[in-house]
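Entry
Fold in token form

___
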Amino acid sequence: MRTEILLLKNASSPYQATVYIGGMQYGSGRGSSKRQAKSAAARASIHILIPEMRAELDAPQPEPDFTFFDYVGIEDPRITEFCAATCEPSPHAILRTCLLRNFGAQDRHIHTEMKKLEYQKIELTMRVGRHSATVVCKNKKAAKQRASQAILQALHPHVRSWGSLLRLYGSRSVKSCKEKKIEEQQITLLQDKARHNEPNYAVLEKLRNEMHKLKERDEAVVPIGTLLVKDDLPTHSGSNLNNVDL
């Protein structure tokens, strides 16, 4: 048995894995990391080889709990190991997703320079736009991940925990193609319930439920205060000494 990995032009699921057994192609799957793609391909293969397990494999999975990551800093050296253990994207994959979503395809270039040091260590410098980070590690793979963490911290100076970044760019930050397809199918079924020259009450009920969810989400946000802006703020650049109270 072997697994073939392909790189796709997809921000949320850039990896596709396909399982081959005895030279024959079986299941394939996509994911935000190679580990997730392999897992999806293995599940699809089990659906083919052992159909009896389909109900167990398709059972709803619990939402990921990022509580542990909320106590881990963004530049913690153990992040790569934790992400691999929890099937979450690596720091470098998170950085690529961040650049693609916020800056588009044209401004997501990541430049790296590597220099060998004594004692079998390397120094890697990563540059993204005006941000740069230099780290020293035992190998290039670890250095790339550590530098990505430093760049992510520079891009998000107000964020302190890795759990916050996972909520922004992790595997569950974007709905999968399967989830989107299921929602579209549900709406299509509701449209079929309409009667001639009568309102579609099923669609209206769906819309009402979604609006209630949005209301509950907005009510859960508690304001922390009010920003008061004085009218006597300087109207010119601060470099003008006439506007600075020395």
Remarks:
- Helices lie at 34-49, 54-57, 79-85, 91-103, 140-155, 162-169, 177-191, 201-219.
- The domain at 2-57 is CATH 3.30.160.20 (Double Stranded RNA Binding Domain).
- The first strand starts at residue 2 and ends at 7.
